[in-house]
Amino acid sequence: xxxxxxxxxxxxxxxxxxxxxxxxxxxxxxxxxxxxxxxxxxxxxxxxxxxxxxxxxxxxxxxxxxxxxxxxxxxxxxxxxxxxxxxxxxxxxxxxxxxxxxxxxxxxxx
Length: 110
Known about the structure:
The structure is a single chain. With 110 residues, this protein is an all-beta fold. It has strands at residues 2-11, 19-33, 38-52, 59-74, 77-90, 97-108. A six-stranded antiparallel beta sheet has the order 1-2-3-4-5-6, with no helix packed on it. 3% of the residues are buried. The model has no long low-confidence stretch (mean pLDDT 89).
């Protein structure tokens, strides 16, 4: 399954400006079931954030990439492993960052 979308919407500010105009230029994801028990996914997002009414006219460009896999161990027991990387490039001082997140989850059901 391949999903591609784009959006533009305001979000609450974190103290800079009156609100953030959030524009997702492209959001893409791909999911594939390799078998009844194993599936994987890849996702990416390019985002621009304009801080409206901020003193420095702050603008951030964010690139996000992620991969993950799900394993259905047995009925009611599933495992997931994900990795996400984000990079924010900002025109504001000290607001640039790179973020690496590894997640492992267990889903238990009846």
